[in-house]
Amino acid sequence: MFNTVAVAGATGAVGRIILQLLEQRRFPAQKFRLLASARSAGQQIDFAGSRITVEELTHDCFHGVDLVIASTPDETAAEFLPSAVRAGCRVIDESGYWRMHPDVALVIPEINPQAALSATGIIASPNCSTTQMVVALKPLHDAARVRRVVVSTYQATSGAGLQGTADLLAGTRAALNSTTYDYKAFRYPIAFNAIPQIGSFKQDGYTSEELKMIFETRKILGDDSIQVCPTCIRIPVSNCHSETINVETERPLSVAEARQLFESFPDIKVLDDPNLGQYPMPSICDGSDDVFVGRIRRDLSHPNCITFWCVSDNL
Ligand code: 2RA
């Protein structure tokens, strides 16, 4: 039982889901504090039968807190989370800022929980598009060693926060009404469109989102030899990221073996009966904690590759 748990970024898209899950799972803590930027401080949020006033996130706000769960922009995490560590808090961070830091544990509980147990500072949670892919890769990697992955993502607007979802709805309405809408979260209209840029462009023509898929995958699986070729696309779906994943393994895997490996792994659900038109889609995966896999098939162009479709609730 924790004495005090603080949720930083409590008013954001992921912060709201964190609160829902803490409430649903009756997370064992005596007291919850909700922290956010000065702009959101003073808001009142109903949580577990009481009304809590949101406090401003400051360097001095962590006194007496045992656990901080943070989902803030990167620059906020960079600035404030070291103060939480110094104040003696355990810190779980959803932002991208600390993930690749050598002293930070990058953890998916189903895959490397031991890294969290031995962490002395921040425990980081991976990027959402990486998380679902790595959960799907883990059983294949354990059985046949993953050498190379080619992945294309179809990412929901909720990945860009509450403003992303607001943009999708308002932009779609505007397009249907032939009026204009000034997008805030996206560089181009997302309504009736697909945008091949998530994050900013970095080295070799890859975006920051794509580089996360390369480097975070290696850190979580503890294998720097895994090659990943990602392309990340924003599509006009409100929630749940989808991915086509092509995996080359050291030992060839049959489709039957891959299916069995997926089915035996905690938190993967196989939905794969093409004859019945059964496969994962955002509309049926929304709100679930599971990673859904379907369309599992041989890559006809390569004996060591299988290919599949993967959908998960990114929030
Ligand atoms: C996105 N994966 O979908 C990012 C959020 N971390 O934009």
Structure description:
The mean pLDDT is 97. This protein is 29% helix and 27% strand. It has 8 helices and 15 strands. The radius of gyration is 20 Å and the shape is globular. It is an alpha/beta fold and 315 residues long. A 7-stranded parallel beta sheet has the order 5-2-1-6-7-9-8, sandwiched between helices. A 6-stranded mixed beta sheet has the order 11-10-12-15-14-13. It has helices at residues 13-24, 74-86, 113-117, 128-144, 162-176, 208-221, 255-264, 282-285, and strands at residues 2-8, 29-36, 44-47, 50-53, 55-56, 67-70, 90-93, 105-106, 122-124, 146-155, 227-234, 241-249, 268-270, 291-298, 305-312. The longest helix is centred in the middle third of the chain and has 17 residues, at 128-144. The structure holds 3-amino-D-alanine. The site of 3-amino-D-alanine has 8 residues, from helix 4. Homodimer. It is an enzyme of class 1 (oxidoreductase). One of its GO terms (biological process) is isoleucine biosynthetic process. The active site is at residues 128, 241.
